[in-house]
């Protein structure tokens, strides 16, 4: 159902029912609205008078006026061409709305906007006509309202917690179970990043570059790379709970690979990929300009890391151990 803002009639009903001491839940049922919407409306548009506090309260007409003024502020980017040009310039440089708004505050600019205003404009008809959404680090078809975004617990359900992961995976005795992570670089170099994956038994690693932090595109790239492998060689991947992995369901639908997730503050639970990242940083420090790095150079870094002998593998290289496991599957 499309979101619709409260109108004057509804605000007058809220005023009357509040004066009649009706609870918020009853008001919400009467208006067929969620009670959080009513709570938010009362909090946002409540009238307060510092000189005459006895007049404090919710008044429908005043609430309607406040709401209209707030909507007008959202149109600041439409009214001010100079401000809009500065925002578009930031988006074209790869900055997120948060970075653009934060920079305006840091510079003490008299005319500035918050990041929510930028997002609202990007997903408005004017912003869509200019195709600004494709310049965001993570693009969506529509902007989710700030108070309607899903909690991480619903994105990463409890039955996918690492405690529910089969114990055999922890023993490293079974081939085909991976760990995944994202290597982040300096913000001023743009949104490009590197996905790193490590197979737990053989310690074999895969690196690939992403142009932004879009979860859907990351999973699509991962599926393209892993699909040629036998299913036994890509049984599961363990991630942390970063927003880059919210599209994990694509793995199951796209190639039958299960996804598991570490506890929120515990990246050490995927220790294989964390240790690999520390080794990879020797070749990919945080000030690396990824977009200037060729695909051949990225492959050379990965091959060099996989060509290292490991004591835990009987001093075989990770590449040798991985190829041996693949031969066993034939």
TrEMBL record:
Gene3D superfamilies: Ribonuclease H-like superfamily/Ribonuclease H. Keywords: DNA recombination. GO terms for biological process: DNA integration; DNA recombination; transposition. Residues 162-326 form the Integrase catalytic domain. GO terms for cellular component: cytosol. InterPro entries: Integrase_cat-core, IS30-like_HTH, RNaseH-like_sf, RNaseH_sf, Transposase-Integrase, Transposase_IS30-like. GO terms for molecular function: nucleic acid binding; transposase activity. Transmembrane segments: none annotated. The keyword Zinc does not apply. This is Transposase. It comes from Roseivivax marinus.
